[in-house]
Structures are given as C-alpha cells and as structure tokens.
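#struct-queue
[09:14] JT: dropping the first one here, sequence first, then the structure tokens:
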Amino acid sequence: MRKPRQPDPEVHESDYRVPAAIGTVAWTAALVVLLAMGDGLPESEQWWIGVCLTGIALGVFGFLYVPRLLRKRGAGPERPEGAEKTGTGTDGAARASEDSTAGTSEDTGPERP
C-alpha cells in the first residue's frame, strides 16, 4: 500500500538579482586577475579568459531576461492590473486552459492501485 502524498512545501520567493550579481562580479574579478597577469599567464591557460567573458555575458543576460520571463509568467512586479486570474495578457488563452485542469488527474497522470 502506498503512503499518501505529502503536501507540497511552501513556495520560497527569492530575489534572482542577488546571485546573478554575485556571479557576475566574481567572473569580472577573475577576468581582471587574469588580465593583470599579462604575460605571466601561460598560453595553455588563456582559455580561462573566454570562460570569464562567458560568465559575465550569462550574468548580464540573466539580468535582462529573467524580469521578462517573470512578467510573462505573471509573477513580475510590472504585471498589468486585472490579469491576475482573468486569463488576460499575452498568453491569456493558454493560461485559461491551464487553470481549467488544475487539480484534476490530467496534471498528475493516471492513478495507480
């Protein structure tokens, strides 16, 4: 016999900007150190400069993209009024169909004995 499913844990809201900023600053500091080494950095280790640039680019991308993603999902601070439960907005049709199946076996799959 299966144990009953435990309730989902509380959603932990966090600010995405803090880890993104810390990571971007860390990659920037690493890049500065590598560039300060100048000719002291062996030829075989210069690929780390590209890694640092990639880390910085991903951090900046996160700052630019995540707010847009949160607004699109409806969790962002710049959410239009009235779009909370009415299904309006850019993805209103999809949201309305998702809300109609909430809590049914369609979103958890078939029940097993």
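[09:21] JT: and here's the second one, same format:
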Amino acid sequence: MKSANRVTGVAAIGLSLIYIFAFVYYGVFWNFPGQSDVQTKMNFLAEHQSIISAVSFITYILFGLVLSILVAGTVRCLQQAGEMQKSITGSFWVFVGWAGDCEWDDCNQWSGLCD
C-alpha cells in the first residue's frame, strides 16, 4: 500500500508541475501576435510549430496520463478508507453531480447530461 500511495503522491506532484509549467509558458513566453493580420499569425505558428507541439503534448496528453494514474491511486486509497472519509467524499461527488446537472439513479449510474 505504501508504494501505491507513493505513486499517487508522485502523480499529484507531477500534475501540479505540469500545470505550473503550462501556466508559465502560456503566461510569460507565449507571445502570439494577436492584433496582426492572418499571414503574420500563420508565419508565427509555422516558425514555432515544434515548441507548440511539444507544449501541447505535455499539457494535454502527458497531463491526462498522469491524471489517470492519480485517479486510479485515489480510488484504491478510498476503497480502504473509513466510513467518515467515504461519507465526506460521497458528499463531494453528489455536489459535483448536482453542479453538472447529473443525477445518481436507482441503478447506481449517472444520468442526465452526463450520458
């Protein structure tokens, strides 16, 4: 169980680092010519295609893979959780379902806009 917790913790730290990296890149280094003509914008994209592809891969694909590891680890940890912790996390998911306009039906499945 300790190794699963360690992997889950590393995944959480990895997600935060990827998020910070993307925030810094798009906030500081991304200098897209927003008020230019179409030709200037296309030239910018063509000149920076490799870095844009690499950052997109990191922020979408790698983030998604690490997120799946985090979710799997969290589910495993919650399976062994106490009743108090399960009720708190259950309340959270009821709120998420409500905010997303979804319902938990009698067959233990999400229904509504989640379909």
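[09:30] RK: nice, looked through the second one.
[09:31] RK: Confidence is low (pLDDT under 50) at residues 108-115.
[09:31] JT: good to know. The radius of gyration is 20 Å.
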